[in-house]
Amino acid sequence: MLISGLIVGTVLGFVLQRGRFCVTGAFRDLWTTRNSRWFTAFLVIVAVHSVGLFALQALGVITLEAEAFPWLATIVGGFIFGFAIILAGGCATGTYYRAGEGLVGSWFALIMYALFSAIMKTGPLSGFNTSMRGITIDASTIYGSLGISPWVLVAVLVVAVGLAVRHHLSKPKVKIATLPASKSGLAHVLFEKPWGAFGTAAIIGVIATVAWPLSAATGRNDGLGITTPSSKLVSFLVTGDPELVDWGVLLVVGILLGSFIAAKGSGEFRIRVPDATTIIKSIGGGALMGIGAALAGGCTIGNAMVQTAQFSFQGWTALGFMILGTGVAAKLTLMRKRPASTPTSSTSGVSV
């Protein structure tokens, strides 16, 4: 059953690359262009995932475990991670799929992210990480603290996200010039036709839901996750211990494979070497990503998508401070470079 991790990762990597879906762009646009389209798409993932998770739990397929809330580590780690993804040019999954496209800067960011997540989780800084995450309060889930059914919050989230999606879809569409199709049928849809933000988000939400029972079948009671598997991958490469290769490790390997397949099929793969300044930022950003994600207990997937779908305090707190950290980094590194009189326009979910 471990092979299902590789399959899910490959499909996820393919969808992320073809949908150009990077959470860094979603967070960044909230600050730089005041555009919430891609952030709304991200919340579509959370909403779809939340419905799926609580449905699976109601059916007895999975069990969602509640833990104490490590509030200090979540706040500090979330902010560091949000700041770091601007420097690195992508979040955890964004860095993985862009590495699969041939972006050398993402290779550096990915290596440092995996290395420093391992340093924080099982290496020299593991004691610091453990002590920080040991500062907790008993509150675990929002619905538990309110004493209500999780389905109440699920319904509120679904309605709110649905209204936001309708708002964006009601706006006039901007026509973009495209080249004549060179493929037909399924090949055209998979490798050539642009994928919409909300459709891509819904697919990712379904993938995230399916991941839970497949992962649980291997003894790993969790869904999509990037930081711990990346840490385990580094540890495996250093020690050669096959016990470290679990469902999650095969998942992240699959993301690289899937994004490479998508990039090659769409003609978007090519080796791109950035300048020295960008490489230095990628290295520093990747290292901070690993530190921040380990402290916060997850990245934009493990925290901002999986934990939020469970309505945990950790997930929603981490999401808020990731967005804040992204805003500070954007202010310091991106927005100050723009002339005040120059209007900005929204970009896709692709990171800069």
Automatic annotation (TrEMBL):
The keyword DNA-binding does not apply. PANTHER family: INNER MEMBRANE PROTEIN YEDE, SULPHUR TRANSPORT DOMAIN-CONTAINING PROTEIN. Belongs to the TsuA/YedE (TC 9.B.102) family. It is a multi-pass membrane protein. It is found in: Cell inner membrane. This is YeeE/YedE family protein. The chain crosses the membrane at residues 6-27, 39-62, 68-90, 102-120, 140-165, 195-214, 244-263, 283-305, 311-330. It comes from the Bacteria. Keywords: Cell inner membrane, Cell membrane, Membrane, Transmembrane, Transmembrane helix, Transport. Pfam families: Sulf_transp (PF04143). The keyword Transport applies. Its main location: membrane.
